[in-house]
Specification:
By secondary structure, this protein is mainly α. The protein folds into two domains: 358 residues, no CATH class; 142 residues. Helices cover 59% and strands 5% of the residues. The protein has 20 helices and five strands. The chain has a five-stranded mixed beta sheet. The protein is globular. It starts with a helix and ends with a strand. The relative contact order is 0.11.
């Protein structure tokens, strides 16, 4: 029976997170951003991009690209893919494979998350609560957020592992203290020594895993209050020593990021990048929550209600110390994306599992009707969540993206052969989100180029007549190119647009954006916009 309780949510998680990984969700621009950095690492160029390659390279620490690059190196990605096909259909197939394997990796991490949620809930609460929490994480629609190649998906298993180590630490201390009190004075040297050794290992491991999570993305610091509570709520007299062991890797590992910038003489760029990341405009916490609520209102309602009930009735700080730092942090930081809520997805599932399990324990076994009603409600919740998730993960939203990517690869000239154009003479130009098209041509097909956005500082292009320019123009860009103002600032855009000729146009083919996105569970499609503004026009001067 215990084996079934853990295998069932893992099997469900494997299905919901590995099925159709390149069809749903749409590939967010940030995914290409992190994949580009991973390929930068894979080619031995170091963890940090140069400022000339990307306008704001110091926005996040390095472990995300180091982790992805290390996995890619271990599996031989992308070299095991046949890259010699030059036909359009062949290039499109290659693009699909290049996106497939990183998404599969995120699916594997989500399965690991499911296991860790089970173990955390089992260790702190009960086996029944663990089963409910793990199944919810496996089947509820909102957990599709972890399918994307974003830093939250990468650091979540490290953060959960750190929590699990802290829970084992407190449990180990209780058991050891109880056992040692029964041991005679002259016979307790070895047990105490073993206890101290295991305690130090668990403490250091918890700090190490959290340090790696923070080194992936700074926002992982929001879990520190919970970990301090778990480590010290059942502590012994060596509190300061335990704190030193735990906090050293938590501080030292993330400090690699500013230290690298200092050594490379880029400390000011690092400061500017961090401040820019914190001051970016965004939709804010409340509007962002409404987006998440629209995606999965059921999990949001039962999860938040369970947090309130369990915290109030059991006076358990576990859930509040996880949730409150998140709310406070993003109340101060205006920029929040929908996938930032990955941080509290496990919390919603664990709280619901604990609340339902406690409710079952409160009901006398003789009240079979009430217990049967609760079991039926939970089963209905599982089935509803699974069906909703299946409807989502079966749709395909990336067909137009793959077509555009393949066409761009085909149109960009090679730069690795003698006599061909150098990368400095090839420019790919588009809106900021279109930089997502840049990493495959450069790092996989050796079609070096520079990417420039349609900012006034990038116009006019220096020595324009000697450069090959490929424009990516969406609907909004097309409108902007035809506008002029009194100062003539957009005249350069209009001239550039008129001096290039149209090669092709890629339109968004998915009908989900137009027809079903206001119907649950397809409300998630609001955050899967497809090709921005419906189309991309490719124009070139060669």
């Amino acid at each position: 029976m215990p084996l079934v309780l853990i295998i069932t949510p893992l099997a469900l998680s494997a299905f919901t997170h590995l099925w159709n990984p390149i069809g749903f969700p749409f590939f967010h621009g940030d995914e290409a951003h992190y994949l580009r950095r991973a390929m930068h690492v894979l080619q031995g160029l170091g963890p940090q991009e140069a400022k000339t390659e990307f306008e704001r390279p110091f926005d996040h620490p390095y472990f995300g690209q180091l982790f992805l690059g290390g996995v890619f190196w271990a599996i031989g990605y992308p070299h095991f893919i046949n890259l010699s096909i030059t036909s359009f259909d062949g290039l499109k197939s290659i693009v699909e494979q290049l996106y497939l394997y990183p998404r599969v990796l995120m699916g594997i991490l989500a399965i690991l998350d499911t296991f860790l949620i089970y173990k955390i809930t089992q260790r702190r609460y009960s086996r029944n609560a663990a089963f409910i929490a793990a199944v919810l994480f496996a089947v509820m629609p909102l957990t599709w957020l972890t399918r994307r190649v974003v830093l939250e998906s990468i650091y979540l298993p490290f953060m959960l592992s750190s929590i699990l180590c802290a829970l084992y630490l407190s449990h180990h201390r209780l058991v050891s203290a109880s056992n040692n009190s029964k041991i005679k004075r002259f016979d307790n040297i070895r047990p105490i020594s073993r206890y101290l050794s295991r305690t130090r290992i668990l403490t250091f491991t918890s700090g190490l895993l959290l340090g790696l999570a923070i080194f992936t993305k700074i926002t992982a610091i929001m879990i520190i209050p919970l970990l301090l509570y778990l480590i010290f709520m059942k502590t012994d007299s060596n509190r300061l020593k335990t704190l030193r062991i735990w906090i050293l890797p938590v501080i030292i590992i993330p400090m690699i990021w500013p230290a690298y910038a200092l050594i490379s003489g880029q400390l000011q760029d690092w400061i500017d990048g961090v401040l820019w990341q914190g001051d970016r405009d965004g939709r804010g916490l409340y509007r962002s929550f409404l987006t998440i609520f629209d995606m999965d209102p059921l999990l949001c309602i039962i999860g938040l209600t369970s947090i309130i009930l369990v915290s109030a009735i059991k006076r358990d700080l576990f859930f509040l110390l996880w949730l409150v730092p998140f709310l406070l942090f993003y109340s101060l930081i205006p920029f929040i994306q929908h996938f930032h809520w990955i941080f509290i997805l496990p919390l919603l599932c664990i709280a619901t599992g604990v609340c339902v399990s406690d409710l079952l324990d409160m009901i006398n076994k003789r009240k079979s009707v009430a217990r049967a009603a609760i079991y039926s409600a939970v089963s209905a919740l599982f089935i509803f969540g699974l069906i909703s998730t299946i409807l989502l993960i079966n749709i395909n939203l990336n067909e137009s993206l793959f077509m555009a990517q393949a066409l761009i690869i085909k149109l960009l000239p090679y730069t690795d052969l003698k006599g061909q154009e150098t990368a400095e003479n090839v420019i790919l130009m588009g809106s900021n989100w279109m930089q997502s098209f840049s990493w495959i041509p450069e790092y996989v097909f050796n079609k070096g180029h520079s990417f420039k956005s349609y900012l006034e500082k990038n116009l006019p292009i220096e020595n324009e007549n000697t450069k090959k320019i490929l424009l990516l123009v969406d609907r909004k860009d097309q409108e902007g190119f035809s506008l002029t103002d009194q100062e003539g600032r957009s005249l350069e855009k209009e001239r550039l647009y008129n001096n290039t000729h149209a090669i092709a146009e890629i339109s968004e083919k998915s009908e989900y954006y137009k027809k079903l996105r206001d119907q649950y569970p397809y409300t998630s499609v609001h955050e899967n916009r497809g090709i921005e503004r419906g189309k991309i026009i490719l124009k070139a001067n060669y």
